[in-house]
Design brief:
Blueprint (H helix, E strand, L loop, with lengths): L1 H32 L10 H9 L10 H9 L3 H6 L1 H13 L7 H19 L2 H15 L14 H18 L8 E5 L2 E6 L6 E2 L2 E8 L19 E8 L8 E3 L5 E9 L2 H4 L4 E10 L26 H12 L4 H7 L12 E3 L8 E6 L10 H7 L3 H6 E6 L7 H18 L2 H4 L6 E6 L1 H7 L8 H6 L11 H11 L7 E7 L11 H8 L6 H13 L10 H4 L1 H4 L5 H7 L8 E8 L15 H4 L6 E6 L9 H18 L11 H6 L3 E3 L29
Parallel strand pairs: 2-8, 6-9, 10-11, 10-12, 12-13, 13-14, 14-15
Antiparallel strand pairs: 1-2, 3-4, 4-5, 5-7, 7-8, 9-11, 15-16
């Protein structure tokens, strides 16, 4: 028994001595298999995310900030007591104890403050983050004290600064002198109320743009730089004129910049002093002169703008889309204080030529948004043109609406000082879509009595009318060319009528339209004067615009027979659905054969496009080409962006049709001489 017990004790003792040996061997074996340093392959997307990670994209710090925390022995403190870690890192920075340098430490303070402020929803924390980011960028410091332009953190710091200001100032932004109590001291910001004055209009309701996602506009434009992009509404106490005004519904793109003198020194003190500056986009653009320097800046700072977001917010907040149909059915829609008018997104500036955009039936100026959004990004167009938008009740008689357009332009030019004060006002381009193209044509024809004779068999002088009624008919149906109009673009225009405006539809819709009192009174007088007046059928459903665009309409037939005066350059942009023969094509509303007129200086066919082609990239490119070519003919200086040719438009899918031109030698794609056959599509050669 004793021997058995002794053998058991000996075995246990042997095992107890062997255990450490086995453990050590296992540890050595495992250590040999798992290297302390390793690498892992990443996909392209993972690699980009790994190298560009920061607090901006989630809860992960950048590699730089992580390294700063690690080397300053603050990682554990950051995880458990983040506010204490930020305060300690600030103290170490004040003591000039840097892990890798002052710049990296300032960036780390900006990123850590931003992340902590986001967790706590702390506006003062966001302000601290913006200040640290500005100090890191040090935009007005000497080159040796600014980060390298290729440093990944430069753009990240700009975004930290922008988004931190967005959260700190909130919405709406208050542009007043103010004091902030920060986690480490106070900040006093100075500003002036004069910055809220934009072309004699007070800016109000300043809203941040940085956190907006734009939908509905094809292209989103912004100008990369420093500052918070904001947008404000101009307060319009009274219109510039009875027919022309800056719209108070469209936000002005602005930049809000918070600047500090010697920021890398100031940000590490307990009492900071800075300045707030508000800069409108039209006062900062390079084409208007050099960029404005910040008050404390010896050199210009590129500023951040989100101009498309500002325009989209305006359309989203204020546009009553039902007004398009109200304005069609109710001819009185712009009466009672809502007069037909020209609106502009910026006040007129001397030297800029007006481009008047005229929308079509049951539409509104908002339908030009994509086109104008793109055109304003062309520096030459932005420098030399301005866009005016004409609104009108689209169910009214076409001659009546055309007369309102004429009066609105005449009044606007007169109120702006006239052509003598600014010759650019005598260089107007009209761009009309659908019915708007017919309104434009009424301003560039020498009718005499041809239009009236095509509609009535008796002279106007034979009718018993009041003086006001006779004057209205004389002005509306005996149009003469406006001398200030130099170029006209017809888009989807039913020059010979629209097949959609058939007899039954015209009768149905025409009976739903309510005309202005003036139109009704004139109609009544004409019928009372001679109920049997031949050909001039004044039934209400025949007077309105829909029947006026019917191929059966005497008005459209008579207008089609009138040529545009030869000193006005003319262009047609004709969309068609599909890829079939042009003679059989249409855009869903207007047939190609109706929109085609041979006596224009250029005709562009846009295939695979419906009637509303204003947002089509080929259409916009052609408008850009036309405006730039017009600029070349009127300006002595060369264009910065060079010449856009027809071959450039065909390269993106456009198709030019040979034309006769509206004057001798004006056709851009002339028809072959002695050609008896219809013109064939051609592609311009480079």
């Amino acid at each position: 028994m004793h021997k058995v017990f002794s053998r058991k004790r000996h075995a246990q003792h042997s095992r107890s001595r062997a255990a450490p040996v086995l453990f050590s061997a296992a540890f050595l074996l495992l250590s040999g298999c798992a290297a302390p340093v390793s690498v892992t392959p990443l996909s392209l997307r993972q690699a980009y995310q790994h190298h560009s990670r920061s607090a901006l994209s989630g809860g992960t710090l950048s590699n730089t900030t992580y390294t700063v925390l690690q080397r300053q022995n603050l990682l554990r403190t950051w995880r458990n007591h983040p506010a204490e870690a930020i305060a300690t890192l600030r103290s170490l920075t004040q003591a000039h104890f840097y892990a890798q340098g002052l710049a990296d430490q300032l960036f780390a303070l900006a990123e850590l403050s931003y992340m902590q402020a986001h967790r706590q929803a702390d506006r003062t924390g966001f302000m601290a983050a913006a200040l640290y980011a500005y100090a890191y960028l040090n935009p007005n410091g000497p080159a040796s004290e600014r980060p390298d332009a290729y440093d990944l953190h430069v753009r990240q710091a700009c975004d930290l600064y922008m988004l931190a200001l967005t959260e700190a100032f909130g919405s709406p932004v208050s542009l007043t002198p103010q004091r902030w109590t920060l986690p480490f001291g106070t900040l006093d910001l100075a500003t002036t109320s004069s910055q809220l004055v934009w072309h004699n209009h007070i800016l109000q309701d300043i809203r941040p743009m940085a956190r907006l996602s734009v939908h509905g506009l094809e292209n989103v434009y912004s100008h990369t730089g420093l500052g918070e992009p904001v947008g404000a509404l101009p307060h319009v106490d009274h219109p510039e004129s009875r027919s022309f005004q800056v719209t108070e519904k469209l936000r002005v793109p602005l930049n809000l910049l918070l600047s500090l003198d010697t920021p890398r020194q100031q940000v590490l003190t307990s009492r900071l002093h800075g300045r707030l500056d508000l800069t409108p986009i039209d006062e900062d653009r390079p084409d208007n002169g050099p960029a404005l320097p910040a008050p404390a800046a010896p050199r210009p700072i590129p500023l951040q703008y989100d101009q498309t977001a500002a325009r989209a917010l305006s359309l989203s907040d204020t546009m009553d889309w039902s007004a398009e149909y109200k304005g069609f059915l109710d001819g009185r829609f712009f009466d009672n204080g809502r007069r037909p008018q020209l609106a502009t997104i910026e006040p007129h500036q001397v030297g800029r030529m007006p481009v008047v955009l005229i929308h079509g039936t049951a539409s509104s100026p908002a339908r030009w948004a994509n086109m104008v959004n793109d055109l304003l990004e062309d520096p030459d167009i932005r420098k030399h043109y301005e866009f005016w938008f004409f609104s009108y009740a689209t169910g009214n008689p076409i001659p009546y609406s055309a007369l309102q357009l004429r009066h609105a332009i005449q009044q606007a030019v007169a109120d702006l000082g006239g052509v003598k004060a600014d010759p650019a006002l005598g260089n107007i381009t009209l761009i009309g879509h659908s019915q708007g193209g017919l309104l434009a044509k009424m301003l560039v024809v020498e009718s005499g009595d041809k239009l009236w004779k095509g509609m009535a068999s008796r002279p106007l002088s034979d009718l018993r009318l009041t003086a006001d009624a006779r004057t209205l008919l004389q002005e509306a149906l005996f149009p003469s060319p406006m001398p200030d109009v130099r170029e006209v673009v017809f888009i989807s225009t039913p020059q010979h009528g629209s097949y959609m405006a058939n007899f039954s539809l015209a009768r149905l819709v025409g009976r739903m339209v309510t005309f202005p009192l003036t139109v009704r009174e004139v109609t009544k007088q004409v019928l009372a004067s001679d109920p049997n007046v031949a050909r001039l059928n004044m039934n209400p459903w025949r007077v309105g615009s829909v029947y006026g665009m019917s191929p059966h309409s005497l008005f459209i037939q008579s207008l089609a027979a009138l040529p545009v005066v030869p000193d006005v350059r003319t262009h047609s942009i004709i969309p068609v659905l599909g890829n079939g023969p042009l003679q059989d094509a249409d855009d869903g509303v207007v047939k190609y054969a109706s929109a085609h007129v041979p006596d224009v200086d250029s005709e562009l066919v846009v295939r695979h496009s419906g009637h509303s082609t204003q947002s089509n990239p080929i259409t916009i490119a052609e408008i850009r080409r036309i405006l730039r070519n017009h600029l070349l003919r009127t300006q002595s200086e060369p264009l910065d962006g060079g010449v856009i040719s027809q071959s450039d438009i065909t390269a993106i899918g456009g198709l030019f049709i040979p034309t006769r031109g509206n004057g001798p030698g004006t056709a851009e794609t002339p028809q072959p001489l002695l050609s008896a056959s219809p013109a064939l599509p051609v592609r311009a050669s480079r």
